[in-house]
Amino acid sequence: MCDTCGCNVTESNRHLIEEDGKHAHTQDGSNAVEVLENLLSENDRQAAHNRHHFDSHGVLTINLMSSPGSGKTSLLEATVQALGGEYRIGVIEGDLETENDAERLRRLGIEAVQITTGTACHLDAHMVHNALHDLNLSRFDILFIENVGNLVCPASFDLGQHLNVALLSVTEGDDKPAKYPVLFRPPTTS
């Protein structure tokens, strides 16, 4: 699916191109571009389905993206501490291999479902849909999707979210994230 990184087929969309899958064969049997276009259109179809779930439960869904180590989980922790008494917050956590960030959030009392992507450097709508089976959306006002740490691929995939938030931060510097991460700083004028 992803021309940028090469992680075209993930475990969540593989069923579409396997032998009996909806897009297992193109009309001429050999056109890979058509298969990729079909997979992307299936992602968009699934994202619309996810959005319908979010809308029908009145859940604002926010896709949080940034580079690895820039403070996505720290921002979520601070957000929950600031808004947790006012809003019911849940998280879908994306990571290549570990459940460390989901465990950090759970220690704060946040319901967090982990998606481990393996080699895929982004979440797709099918992965998010699978995670929804482990959540009761009626328990949330806001659902954050903490995407895999990458600033290129995640922006290409509609997950069904209502908003995208990109956290911009200097990574791999100080071990302590900024007290107030900068989400957007307008350019200065001279």
UniProtKB/TrEMBL annotation:
GO terms for biological process: protein maturation. Transmembrane segments: none annotated. Gene3D superfamilies: P-loop containing nucleotide triphosphate hydrolases. InterPro entries: CobW/HypB/UreG_nucleotide-bd (IPR003495), Hyd_mat_HypB (IPR004392), P-loop_NTPase (IPR027417). Residues 62-157 form the CobW/HypB/UreG nucleotide-binding domain. Keywords: GTP-binding, Hydrolase, Metal-binding, Nickel, Nucleotide-binding, Zinc. The keyword Transmembrane does not apply. The keyword Zinc applies. This is Hydrogenase maturation factor HypB. The gene is hypB.
